[in-house]
Every structure is written in C-alpha cells, then in structure tokens.
C-alpha cells in the first residue's frame, strides 16, 4: 500500500485483513522541533510543530481481550497479543507502541477491550520525526474515544510518556506527543515542559514565501544513547551545583557566576540549555511580532550552541546546515537528539532547489550516504478521519 493511502483504501484493506469494516479511522502526525533542543528534561521550553506526515490507524473493537495488529510497512505479518497479559517489556517491534498505550490506559483504571488494528504511516522511521509517537498518539486517541474514557490532552500526554518510558523502555519526555496531540495547522506548539502549558504560535512559512526543508542524514551514530545519557547527567550535575531543581531556573544573567562554580564541560552543557531556553522565548516573540522570516539567526545560533557547547552534532549534520546556509537558507539547525538524524533549513521558495542540489553534492563529495530531503508544513494534531 502506498504511503498516500486515503481513508477508503485503508478501510478496504482493513476489511480484507480482518473480515469486516473498522469502527473508525484516526490519524496522528509526526513532528519537527523548530527550536528548543535538550531543554525538555530540564523543565524548559520547546517549540515543535505537528507535520503533514501521519500515522493512520483503522480500528475495530473485539468482544474478547485479544489484539491483532498489522502495519502496511515492512512486510510484517499480523501480530497477536492478549491485553490481559500485558506488562512492561512485553511485546516486540512496533507492536510495543500500540500495546504500550493500551497498557498505560489500563494502568489508569480504564477498561480497554481487545481490538483489531491496521496501521499505515508515512512518517519516516528513525529520522527524528517521531514515527513512534505518531503511532502511539493515533492509537491512544482512538482508544480514548471508543472507550468513552474522555481523557484530556494533558492526561493523554502523560499516558503516552508512560507507554514509552515504562512499557517500551525509551527515556523520552513530553515534547513529541504534545506536538502530535496538540498541534494545529499553520502553528507551532510552544510548550512549557514544567507544567505542560501550551500556546499555539502562528508559524506559516508558506505565507512568508519560505519552505521548511528537512534533511535526513540517514545516519545514527552508535554513541547516540550514551551521549544522551551523559548530557542528561551533566545537566543534573549543573542544576545540583547551582542549587536549582532544574536548569530551567537558571537565567542568562546567572551564567557569569556559574562559570566560577562549574567545571569546563558542565559549564558548556549548562550554557547550551540556558541560552537555548532563551532562544525559544525569542523565537516565539519573533514569530508573533514579525513572522518566520525573522527567526533565521536564532536557528543558526541554536545549531552553533549544539555543535560547540552541547557537542551533539556530527559531520553530516554540520555539512547539511553549513551547505544549506551557504546556498540561500535563512537559518538552519540540527533537530532532535543529535549524533545523526535530521537537520532543518528555513529556505526561500526560490532557493529550495539550489539548497537541495548543493546538499546532495556536498554529501557525495564528503563520501556520505545520500540524504533524504523533503519539505514539511505545520499541520493538524491527532484527529478522527472516519
Ligand atoms: P522515531 O520515533 O524517531 O522515528 P523510534 O526508534 O522511536 O524512531 O521509532 C521507530 C520505530 O517505530 C520503528 O523501529 C518501528 O518499530 C516503529 N514504526 C514506525 N513507523 C512504523 C510503521 N509504519 N510500521 C511499523 N512500525 C513502525
Ligand atoms: Mg520515537
């Protein structure tokens, strides 16, 4: 099945696979983080947006506690499980995401019936666009609705985090599912990770004659997990030495004094988080006041901070960013956890092709794998399609 499957094709495929029509079809998007990297677990600010690439699920409730799952991707067969026996660590492969959210809802005392589910997603896997959260958010939105549980967005965000952290075992925060569940067309999601306060900020690049290019480097360096853990540890150490609960509570003005208290590495890590939080706030202001054309320098500064202070970039990301900038992008940065994944480049429409071509050539000359380059636009959060 192609990745542009419409609802009726998905419904037909569901009928073929499971014998009758689904009760409904739901979708949830992947996300791109515009700015605010490694600020989430420091209780700081992030500014992601839901993208126009989505996971769609057709789902029908069963009258037992069994689950049957099929994805149109990757030639997997139908996966079967029993909701009665779910516990953290159970399930394999992609089935852990739908089972994880079912488990997290059960944990909250919600009675989840068995279900048949067909997934079709065009969110690229492992590119840093949160294909796993797109699945989780589509499924949790469907289960919340068909059970009549009526959980609000904030509760769904926490349940999804428990599914990832406890059931799947991935140490993720609340940014990805907040963008996927709470995003809106033409807007970015300004999220305060301390209290889940959300404000939708207009981000309509197209109306400003700009496109947002994603450059998927297709690399994931092997030290990514260790690098993430050590950055978290440095942030915790920094907060402890500075006497705050989280680095969110350290202002720009406190950096000078911090220099005398922290070792060189910890100071660099802290400086990234503190300045990045400030850049998020400045980006929100700039978008509201003058629009996307005014945020280029903030994206650039964010990249430099991640490259030099947080030290989570890599040659592929640096070449993507530098080449995009040299060929007309007004701002560019790596996005996501780092050590691979994707960069974003805010680019005038008229320069799009030049940036694409130049990045492809630069990667080839450096001996890197060919990148995948595509545009994304801020799109609606999770919703029911049929
Ligand atoms: P990311 O969320 O950044 O894309 P993850 O490693 O968290 O990367 O999630 C990727 C995993 O999500 C894949 O290994 C796979 O298990 C699952 N996944 C994503 N999209 C699909 C799909 N269309 N079909 C089946 N599994 C998928
Ligand atoms: Mg993921």
The amount of helix comes to: 25-40%
CATH class value of the largest domain? Alpha Beta
Main sheet?
Answer: 8 strands, mixed
Name the poorly predicted regions: none
Total count of domains: 2
The coarse overall form would be globular
Q: CATH topology of the largest domain, anyone?
A: Ribosomal Protein S5, domain 2
Sum up the structure in keywords.
eight-stranded mixed sheet; alpha+beta; binds magnesium ion; 386 residues; Ribosomal Protein S5, domain 2; 2 domains; Alpha-Beta Plaits; 40% helix; binds adenosine-5'-diphosphate
Q: Would you mind describing this structure in some detail?
A:
The chain is an alpha+beta fold. It folds into two domains: 7-201 and 379-384, Ribosomal Protein S5, domain 2 (2-Layer Sandwich), CATH 3.30.230.10; 204-375, Alpha-Beta Plaits, CATH 3.30.70. Helix content is 40%, strand content 23%. The protein has helices spanning 7-18, 96-107, 131-146, 153-168, 175-182, 224-242, 255-258, 264-289, 296-309, 315-326, 352-366; strands at residues 24-35, 45-61, 66-71, 79-82, 115-121, 187-192, 197-202, 210-220, 331-335, 340-348, 372-376, 383-384. The strands form two sheets. Strands 1, 2, 3, 4, 5, 6, 7 and 12 form an eight-stranded mixed β-sheet that branches. The protein has a four-stranded antiparallel β-sheet with strand order 9-10-8-11. The two termini are 19 Å apart. It binds adenosine-5'-diphosphate and magnesium ion. Residues 130, 132-133 line the site of magnesium ion (MG).
């Amino acid at each position: 099945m192609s990745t542009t499957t419409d609802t009726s094709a998905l419904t037909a495929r569901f009928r073929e696979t499971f014998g009758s029509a689904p009760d409904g079809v739901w979708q949830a998007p992947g996300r791109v983080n515009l700015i605010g990297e490694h600020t989430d677990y420091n209780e700081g600010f992030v500014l992601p947006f839901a993208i126009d690439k989505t996971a769609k699920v057709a789902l029908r409730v069963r009258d037992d506690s069994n689950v049957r799952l099929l994805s149109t991707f990757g030639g997997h067969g139908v996966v079967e499980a029993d909701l009665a026996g779910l516990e953290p660590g159970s399930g394999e492969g992609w089935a852990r995401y739908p089972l994880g959210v079912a488990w997290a809802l059960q944990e909250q005392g919600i009675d989840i019936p068995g279900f048949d589910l067909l997934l079709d997603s065009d969110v690229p896997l492992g590119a840093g666009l949160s294909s796993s959260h797109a699945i989780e958010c589509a499924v949790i939105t469907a289960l919340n609705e068909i059970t009549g549980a009526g959980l609000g967005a904030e509760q769904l965000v926490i349940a999804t985090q428990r599914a990832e952290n406890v059931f799947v075992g991935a140490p993720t925060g609340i940014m990805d599912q907040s963008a996927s569940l709470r995003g809106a067309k033409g807007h970015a999601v300004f999220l305060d990770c301390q209290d889940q306060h959300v404000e939708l900020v207009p981000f309509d690049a197209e109306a400003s004659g700009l496109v947002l290019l994603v450059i998927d480097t297709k690399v994931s360096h092997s030290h990514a997990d260790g690098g993430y853990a050590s950055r978290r540890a440095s942030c915790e150490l920094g907060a402890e030495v500075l006497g705050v609960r989280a680095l969110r509570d350290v202002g720009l003005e406190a950096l000078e004094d911090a220099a005398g208290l922290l070792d060189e590495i910890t100071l660099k890590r802290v400086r990234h988080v503190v300045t990045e939080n400030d850049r998020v706030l400045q980006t929100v202001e700039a978008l509201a006041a003058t629009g996307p054309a005014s945020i280029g320098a903030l994206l650039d500064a964010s990249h430099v901070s991640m490259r030099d202070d947080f030290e989570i970039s890599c040659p592929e990301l640096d070449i993507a960013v530098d080449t995009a900038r040299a060929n007309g992008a007004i701002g560019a940065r790596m996005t996501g956890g780092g050590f691979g994944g994707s960069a974003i480049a805010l680019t005038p429409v008229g320069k799009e092709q030049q940036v694409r071509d130049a990045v492809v050539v630069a990667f080839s000359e450096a001996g890197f794998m060919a990148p995948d380059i595509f545009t994304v636009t801020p799109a609606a959060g999770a919703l029911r399609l049929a």
